Amino acid sequence: MKKSKKSWKKKSSSRKRTSSKKKSSKEKSLKEGSSDSLKDRPLAEKIIIGICIFILIIFPSIFILFSIGLAIFMGVEDQIDTKEEHIEKRTSNEEMFGKYLYLDKIDEDVYAVVSEDEDPERRLVWDEDFCGYYDDLSNGYVWYDVKREKWKYWFKDISPDYKDYGWMVYDSNGWRIEREYQDWIKLPESYDRSKLWYIKQSE
Questions:
Q1: The whole model's pTM is what?
Q2: Same domain, 190 and 106
Q3: Residue 142's closest CA among 157, 127, 160?
Q4: CB neighbours of 118 closer than 8 A, spacing ≥ 6?
Q5: Are 124 and 83 in contact, with CB atoms under 8 Å apart?
Q6: Predicted confidence (pLDDT) per residue in 126-159, tens digit
Q7: Same domain, yes or no: 102 and 195
């Protein structure tokens, strides 16, 4: 009987030890898990903050750049459309004057349109690509604007300074040049006028 009591005590004590060991191991694992979660939390917060910064800064920047690009594209498109409309208005003069434009001098740097039979002093040939009559003496072009009933001139020594424009007209105020679309200014005095000539407007 004494032996059985001792053995029972030993068994119960061993059970207590094993249960206490299990409890301590569980507590350790819980502590380790909680410590791991505490360690991981700052990293997760950093990731969340980084995502928020990306959304708040990068996305608006992309949107702004896209908007600027779209505005520039639309502006260029409008300019191209305006230029195309401007070019389309410059129609051919061949039906009115023929392939050649014959001119006769009537005054200093002033000419009149004549026929081939009148022994003209100058003969200008129609340039289909440029849409104007070319004059090799002045290295320029002349074109009759039917809508405005005006002769317009494009001289290579002057007009290219105004890029896509640069057409010139001569009237009672002297020479004027197109700076922008339908924006006419007086021709600056700095330009050489020695090769400039014009056709007298028919009254």
A1: 0.58
A2: yes
A3: 127
A4: 102, 104
A5: no
A6: 999 999 999 999 999 999 999 999 999 999 999 9
A7: yes
